[in-house]
Model the fold of this input.
Amino acid sequence: MERVIKFRGLRVDGGEWVYGYYYGGYNWGDFIIENIGFEHRVRVIPETVGQFTGLTDKNGNDIYEGD
Done:
């Protein structure tokens, strides 16, 4: 089974969770998540970024670092 590498983080401009791939950071430390299925990138609060662990809970929801 192939491991899926994806991330989530809270948007800096509204606080909703975004899910996708880690894109990188700017010189001042912002993290970017590139939304899965979208062609744009979103700034997220660095302290909220968590990587998918590859596990799911009993309801089938993805578990991320920090949950």
User: Anything to note?
Assistant: The mean pLDDT is 77. The chain has no helices and six strands. The two ends are 23 Å apart (CA to CA). Residues 50 and 66 are 7 Å apart (CA to CA).
